[in-house]
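batch job 7 of whatever, protein = 40S ribosomal protein S25
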Amino acid sequence: MAKAKAAPTSSSGGKAAKKKKWSKGKVKDKAQHAVILDKPTYDRIMKEVPTFRFISQSILIERLKVNGSLARVAIRHLEKEGQIKRIVHHSGQLIYTRSTGGTD
């Protein structure tokens, strides 16, 4: 009941038929994010961030092009002022949303 194996042909796609060529890889450009909270950046954060539905450190970094530590400071500042409220408090990711019925 033993099956006899057929010899591999060039069309069967065996290992010896074609060796995979590895690509050189893509180089990601270094992000040029702001590391100092200047007046235009501060004004933009205070104006735009309270209108976001979903606010996290990652969102601020991506949309406002600021450094991670700057994003954390901005989020803490907005929460202290009551413009945003916390949804999830986790050691890895803090998630906030805009305050409804805010103190505008």
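notes: The longest helix spans residues 68-81.
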